[in-house]
Amino acid sequence: MAFRGLVAMCNLLLGEFNVLKNRYLHVDWKEDTAYWGKKSLFARLETAKVNVKTQNNIITLYKVFGKEKIFGRGDVVSVLLITARPATDLIKKMQA
Questions:
Q1: Which of 42, 45, 47, 82 suits 65 as a labelling partner, its CA being 20 to 30 A distant?
Q2: Closest among 64, 48, 77 to 91, alpha carbons compared
Q3: What is the pLDDT of residues 21-40, one digit of tens each?
Q4: Cα-only R_g, the chain
Q5: Burial 42-73 (b: 16+ CB within 10 A, else e)
Q6: Is the dihedral of CA 78, 82, 64, 95 positive or negative?
Q7: Could you tell me if 18 and 11 are in contact, meaning their C-beta atoms sit under 8 angstroms apart?
Q8: 46 to each of 38, 39, 71, 75, 91, how far by Cα in Å?
Q9: pLDDT in tens, 79-88
Q10: Is the separation of the CB atoms in 77 and 85 below 8 Å?
């Protein structure tokens, strides 16, 4: 509310007409390279403390979904043909 008042005051003082609506406000998003760095998925998996089977499952998920698609436990179950509990554990390991 205070921001709208500020815009109204700027409009009055500067003789402008700026409309403040959500559909006109845009946020420019940039990927945080400090967190991900320049390392590839395979380089990060080599340094991770997970077994080979888990690494293969993560690579399979990466090949199916890529970096842009969001997936859940049901998707992991259907792709890897495992039950829900190991899929949950795999997702937890991937988040850590």
A1: 47
A2: 77
A3: 655 555 555 555 555 556 67
A4: 23
A5: eeebeeeeeeeebeebbeebeeeeeeeeeeee
A6: positive
A7: yes
A8: 15, 11, 23, 25, 18
A9: 999 999 999 9
A10: no
pLDDT at 30 (0 to 100): 58
Record the tokens describing residue 79, joined without a space.
Answer: 């792709």
Angle at 93 between CA 37 and CA 81, to 5 degrees: 115
| Separation between Cα atoms, residue 5 and residue 46, nearest integer Å | 55
Report which residue type is found at 84: A
Q: Where are the alpha helices (DSSP H) in the chain?
A: 2-14, 33-36, 41-47, 52-65, 73-80, 84-95
